[in-house]
Design a protein that fits this description.
Length: 152
Amino acid sequence: MEFRKRKFIKILGASFLALLLPIKVIFAATKKVINPNLSKEQKNIMFNEGTERPFTSDLLKEKRKGFYHCANCGNKLFASTSKFDSGTGWPSFSEALPGAFKTKIDNSFGMVRVEYHCAKCGAHHGHVFNDGPKESGKRFCNNGLCLIFKPN
Ligand SMILES: [Zn+2]
């Protein structure tokens, strides 16, 4: 009896792993380095969910009209009209372009945050919070190193 129970648990565990595996493989496959010129720091943020030091991004001062693109794959992510100064030291936006990102819950550092990544290449960009000042109520806190600004 005891043996059968253990065997059952073993089978159950194995099928659970088999179920999880494809999900992991699919997720890993959607995350890929496209731009061969990414720096070590950019790769660390985009593929190891790192964070750049606050107040280091040149984009904090960017006020021109245009669009912000993914530094890895070029996907168009934010319009300059959604950018605002959050005072946090990271480029901040009130809304992303439709379909630009996918989100997932991030439980690291003992906090529950919503992490977002490029829908096209899977690269991590930042976290989105519900304390934005504009109508959307959102604050996309984006690592500047993950973005490329293209003025109109
Ligand atoms: Zn991308």
